[in-house]
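Milestone 3.1: sequence recovery, worked example.
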C-alpha cells in the first residue's frame, strides 16, 4: 500500500512566514536507549517524510491538513512513527514537515525539522542535508502508525547483511516488502495493491534506506534523463526515488528487479522481503484510515 513517497505529486502546504529553524543539538535522540548496537556498529540516521497534504476526503473527515496531523486514538500518526524511530535509537532524526506541523513537535536532542521542497525528491534531499555523504539513513513516511521499532530494526539488520554480502561501500538503495501470504493472514479483508514478481506477490511499505550521496546522485540521474528524453515525464521527479519500485516491476524476478532499479538510480539495490505487514498499513483513502483505526483499537484491547 505504501512507498517512501506517495504516488501522487507532493503538495507542500503554503506558509505565511519564514520557516522557523527548530534544529536541536546533534547527538543520540534523547529519552530512549539505542537498540542499533546489536544490529550494526555504524551510526544510522533517519528521515521522516511528513510534508504532504492529506487527501481531500481524509482532510474533510478529520480536519487535519497533513497525514502526519491525523489523530488516531488521541495520538497523531506522525507522533506514533516518531516514537517508533526514537526507540530504535538513531544518531539523528529529521522530520520533513510544513511550518505548522514543525511548530507542534516536541523535538529532542538529535532531532530537527526541515521544510519540504517543491517535489518529493527535493524534500528527501532537504531531510538529508547536513549528513555525511555515506551515512546510512533510514527513510520512512508519517502515515505508517502501526510500524514498531522492532520492524525497523529487523529491516536495518537485513540491509546490513545484504551490504556485507555484496561487499559494496558506494551508492546503494534498499526497500522493504511484506510477503502477500503474511499480509493476508494478518489483515484479512484489507485491500492491497500488490507488486508481482516471479517469486510471488508483495506489499510495499514504509521501509527504505540509502545514503545522502546515493540519493543526490539518483536525483541527478533522473533529472538528466528527464531533460534529455521528453518521453520521461516530470512525474518521475514528483513521485520520489524508491517509490519507482512499484512502476518498474512486472513479472521479473527479485534479482532482475534489483538490477533494473540499480541501473536507473545509479547504485546497488537491495530488495528486502519478509518484512512485517504492519509496515505496509498506511492511509491514502478514508477506507484505509478506518482500517488503521480499527486495527489500533484491536491492538489496544489485547
Amino acid at each position: 500500500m505504501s512507498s517512501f513517497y506517495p504516488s501522487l505529486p507532493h503538495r507542500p502546504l503554503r506558509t505565511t512566514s519564514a520557516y522557523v529553524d527548530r534544529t536541536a543539538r546533534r547527538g543520540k535522540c534523547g529519552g530512549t536507549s539505542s537498540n542499533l548496537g546489536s544490529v550494526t556498529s555504524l551510526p544510522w540516521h533517519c528521515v521522516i517524510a511528513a510534508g504532504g497534504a492529506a487527501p481531500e476526503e481524509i482532510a474533510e473527515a478529520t480536519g487535519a491538513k497533513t497525514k502526519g496531523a491525523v489523530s488516531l486514538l488521541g495520538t497523531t500518526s506522525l507522533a506514533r512513527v516518531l516514537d517508533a524511530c526514537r526507540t530504535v535509537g538513531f544518531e539523528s532524526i529529521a522530520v520533513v514537515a510544513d511550518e505548522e506541523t514543525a511548530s507542534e513537535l516536541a523535538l529532542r536532542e538529535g532531532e530537527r525539522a526541515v521544510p519540504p521542497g517543491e517535489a518529493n525528491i527535493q524534500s528527501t534531499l532537504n531531510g538529508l542535508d547536513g549528513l555525511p555523504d555515506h551515512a546510512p539513513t533510514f527513510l520512512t513516511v508519517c502515515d505508517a502508525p502501526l510500524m514498531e521499532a522492532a520492524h525497523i530494526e529487523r529491516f536495518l539488520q537485513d540491509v546490513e547483511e545484504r551490504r556485507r554480502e555484496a561487499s559494496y561501500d558506494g551508492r546503494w538503495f534498499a526497500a522493504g516488502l511484506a510477503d502477500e501470504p503474511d499480509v493476508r493472514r494478518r489483515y484479512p479483508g484489507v485491500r492491497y495493491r500488490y507488486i508481482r514478481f516471479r517469486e510471488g506477490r508483495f506489499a510495499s511499505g514504509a521501509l527504505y534506506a540509502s545514503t545522502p550521496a546515493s540519493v543526490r546522485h539518483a536525483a541527478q540521474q533522473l533529472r538528466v534523463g528527464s531533460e534529455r528524453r521528453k518521453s520521461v515525464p516530470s512525474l518521475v521527479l514528483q513521485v520520489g526515488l524508491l517509490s519507482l519500485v512499484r512502476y518498474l516491476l512486472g513479472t521479473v524476478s527479485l534479482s532482475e528487479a534489483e538490477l533494473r532499479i540499480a541501473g536507473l538510480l545509479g547504485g546497488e539495490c537491495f530488495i528486502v522481503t519478509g518484512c512485517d505487514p504492519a509496515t505496509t498499513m498506511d492511509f491514502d483513502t478514508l477506507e484505509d484510515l478506518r482500517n488503521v483505526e480499527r486495527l489500533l483499537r484491536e491492538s489496544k484491547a489485547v
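Strands lie at 45-50, 71-72, 75-76, 92-97, 111-114, 137-141, 172-179, 195-197, 200-210, 268-272. The longest strand covers residues 200-210.
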